[in-house]
Amino acid sequence: SSGINAEYGSDPKNIKGLIKRQAEWCKSTNDPGSAIDLYMAASAFAEAIEIAGKQKWTDKLVEIMRQLDKSYVEELRGCAGYFKDLGKYEFAAESYQKLGELNSLVELHIESQQWQEAFTLCEDHPEFKESVYIPYANFLAENDKFDEAQEAYYIAGKPTEAVKVLEKLTHNAVAERRFDDASYYFWKLSMAYLKLANQAQTRGDEDEVNQYLDKFQDYQHRAEIYYVYQTIHRYTEEPFTSHLPEALFNMARF
After folding, report:
1. CB 234, CB 251: distance < 8 Å
2. Which of 67, 86, 236, 250 has the fewest Cβ atoms within 10 angstroms?
3. Burial classification of residue 238, based on how many CB atoms lie within 10 Å of its CB (0-12 exposed, 13-18 middle, 19 or more buried)
4. pTM score of the predicted model
5. Which one, of 250, 249, 231, 252, lies nearest residue 241 by Cα?
């Protein structure tokens, strides 16, 4: 002890330098646990984080992260990166919360598909609604959940994307001969275009108003046709029907 004091004195910088040298020696002799503890004692948190991350020691990373305040920006970001690699998203979120980096927190929730956490964040910070709901809608559409995707696009304020999803739903229903569903989706499409027409009217864009109203009328008519055609199609596919031949004839004339 007296030898150390004689060589390094009582200057904290000198003492930390000695501790870091001891940490480096432990690291070189394959003693990562001791190296981490010594680096932490020397406030060399970046080095401690790197070792703990490479060793995939979640507990050590959590211990280091919770010792840091928000002034340790790069160190906390480093912790968050390792937590993400390890699939420990709750600790990555804690790291970003300490930093107050809400953008990174939103991206984390989206990347990890923690949608409920993202929605909760949007309740307190509505400025992130579009950033959350568009990826959520894309995620739903990619997993063939088109109805839910359409609603998510509306929440994100992207009605034209919602219409595209409805068109996909309608096409699938017709191709699969689900004519009741096709009628319903054509009706929803017509109402979506009516909403777009109203928005165009507010902007004073008469060309778009007329274009959307034409779509509205077209899809309303198709909805009626497919609603009637479902009964006729069922009659050709199934041996029994509750409709009289005259009723089916009149439906066909429609």
Report:
1. no
2. 236
3. exposed
4. 0.66
5. 231
